[in-house]
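User: Sequence in, structure out. Go.
Assistant: Echoing your sequence, followed by the structure tokens.
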Amino acid sequence: MNYNFLEQAYNPDRWKDLIRSLFPSQADVFARSETIPADNERIESFTQFGTVRLNDQYDTQLALFEIRLQPNTTKLQINRVALNKIVGKINESALLTGALAVYVDDEKEKWRFSFIAKRHQYKQSGELESWETEPKRYTYVFGKGEKTLTANTSGKPSPSL
């Protein structure tokens, strides 16, 4: 697959094609996106456009989110932790294991992709153990003027929870 679209403004159809190619039997891209209410001044729109069910020991289900940001409210290059917190709240309330989220700044023609995951399980001792992805990792900025060498050479992602 040609990854040149990563260096261009966000194109939802190209992004969905990539998701389908990376997860051919696990991705369920919805015919119509579902709007998610978001009480945050940074967000113009928040939609879920599908899910990915990983074939792992935890039966991991990841939501596919597209978050369009209000103009001039967020710097994609530096606000990765704050952006991931927005999705983290949705994941917990929906009982999802994680998300593949795209944050879009149409005005600057840039977008951020993030893999966000959180898991809770009980140890044999009965103690609850929690794990989540580091908010500053598994996140990339794409779009006009961005270098995509890491994303281009990483190959197929295999998020393990």
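User: And one key feature?
Assistant: The CA atoms of residues 51 and 92 lie 15 Å apart.
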